Amino acid sequence: MPAPTQAPPTHITPAATEPVAAPAAGFWRAFHTPHLVAGYPVTGQQVVFGLLLVFCLTPWASPPVALALGLVLAQTLGNPFLSQTKAATAKLLQYSVVGLGFGMNAHAAVQAGREGILFTVASIFGTLVLGYLAGRWLGLGRHVTHLISCGTAICGGSAIAAVGPVLHAKDEEMSVALGTVFVLNAIALFAFPPIGHALAMTQQQFGLWCAIAIHDTSSVVGAAKVYGDQALQVATTVKLARALWIIPVSIGTAMLFKQKGVKITIPYFIFGFIAAMLLNTYVPALHPLGPVLVNLAKIGLTLTLFFIGAGLSAKIVRSVGARPYVLGVLLWVVISSVSLCVILHTV
C-alpha cells in the first residue's frame, strides 16, 4: 500500500510573527536616532531644540511664546540638553536682570520701591503665616510647606534655592517645591496680562501687582514686558527689592528650625542691577549703550523662559502630587486677589 502523501509544511516567515511597530512610535524614535553630520552624531530632537532656540533670539518670540514652545518641547520630544539648560538658566536670568538696569532711572526706581515697600513687607509675612497654617491643615511636611511658602512670598525658585540648604532639605523636598512654583509661574505668565487689560490697570498698577503676586523674577519680568515698558520698570524694581528679603528670611529660617553652621545665600546680582541703574542715571556717556544692553537683556529673558519651559516635563508635574499644588494654588490665589484689590483702590 503506498505511503500517504503529506502536505508540504507551512513556512511562517519571522516577519509574520513579529509585532509591527506603530507608525507613531517609529516617527518619534526617528527624532532620537543620531545621524552623523560633519562627523558629529546629531539627533532630530537636538535639531528641533536648536531651531526653537534660534527662533527665541528673533523679535517674534515674546516671553510667553518662548515659555509655551519650551513646554511643548518638554511634553513631546523632550529636552536633549536638560542638564545644560538647568545650569544656564540661573546665570542667564541674573545677567538679564543686570542688563535691564541700564534702561532704568534711579529716581523713578526709588519712587517705585518706596510705593511697594509696604505691600512687600505685609505680603511676605502674611504669606509665610498663611502657608504655615495651610500646610498643617493639608498634612504636609514642615520643610515642603516652608519652601513653597518662601517661594510664593519672595521670589520663587531663587528663594527656594536659598532657603533649601538652610533647612538641610532633601532633594525630593526641593523638587516638589520647585515643581509647584514653576507650574504656577507658567500659568501666571499667560494669565496676568489679559487680567490687567480686562481691569484697565495702569502701567504702575500692573507692574506692582506682578512684582507681588507672581513668584519667580523671570515670569514677573516676562509678564510686565508684555504689558508695557513702564510696567516692566516698576515690576523689576519692586521684585528685586523683594528678593533682598531672601537674606533675613534665611536667617529667620535658621533660627526657627534651629539650624547651626549654615551658609546664607546672598543674591549679589541685585547689586549688579543697582549699579547698572546708577550708571545709566548718572553717566550720560553710557546712554547710547543702554538700549543695546536692554535689548540683549530682554532676549536673555526670553531664552530663560524657553529653558524653564523645556525643563518642565510631564513627569515633573505628576511627581509633585496633589497636596503641594493645593498649598501653592491657595497661597497664590490669596496673595493675588488681596494685592489686586488693595492696588486697585490705593494706587
TrEMBL record:
InterPro entries with a match to the protein in the record: UPF0324_pro
Mode of membrane association: Multi-pass membrane protein
Annotated TM spans: 47-72, 92-110, 116-135, 147-168, 174-194, 264-283, 289-313, 325-345
Domain of life: Bacteria
Pfam families: Cons_hypoth698
Locations listed in the record: Cell membrane
Keywords carried by this UniProt record: Cell membrane, Membrane, Transmembrane, Transmembrane helix
Family per record: Belongs to the UPF0324 family.
Name of the protein in its database record: Sulfate exporter family transporter
Organism: Hymenobacter glaciei
